[in-house]
Structure formats: C-alpha cells, structure tokens
Amino acid sequence: MTRCSAIKPNGERCQRSADHPHGLCWAHDPAHAETRRRMASRAARARPTREISDLKDQLSRLAEEVRAGELAPKIGAVVNQIINTRLRALEMECAIRETDDLAREVEELKREYSGAA
To answer: 34 — phi, psi (to 5°)?
Structure first.
C-alpha cells in the first residue's frame, strides 16, 4: 500500500494511503477540492443545529424545574435570558457565515466570468 505524497501544513508527510494513481489520498487530491469544500461548509452549518437542540433541551429542563418548584422563577428568568443571548449569538454567527459563503461564491463567479470574457 502506497502512502500519500502530500506534505501537511505542519511539515509532516500525510499518513493516509494513496488510492489514486497520482500518489495522493482523497483528502489531498485536487480533483476532490470542491467536494471537500462543500462537505466542510455543510459540517460548519450543522454545528448551530446541534447547539440549538442543546439550548432547547436546557429550556425544557429549566421550565420543568420552575414548574416543579425546584428553581425560583426569578432565577429561571435570568437563566432564560442567558439562553436567549446564546441563541442570538448563534443567529449572528449563522448570518455572518452565510454572508461569507455568498461573498466567496460571488468572487468565484466574478473570476469565472472574467476568465470567459
């Protein structure tokens, strides 16, 4: 089995097997660069979904603790405000990421268009 011939940013040689004839693994094969970029973009967008799910679980537990009398309503209100602040931060993070993605796509289209003209 042949090892990938790519050198990683830290200067070490990649240890993955090179399944392709040009001596590179899938992660370093330039032919897969666009697929890797799309996959990374999807993974980045999935993170807020998990965080939102966690925050919803926290809100459910918080409501249950207040209802059961295990937590004072005033403390519950403060915790709710903190969770709301975290949700707003996630919303901003998503908006910034979407704007950055769109800006990258516009730049790619500009390059393609100017190259075709």
So the answer is: -65, -40
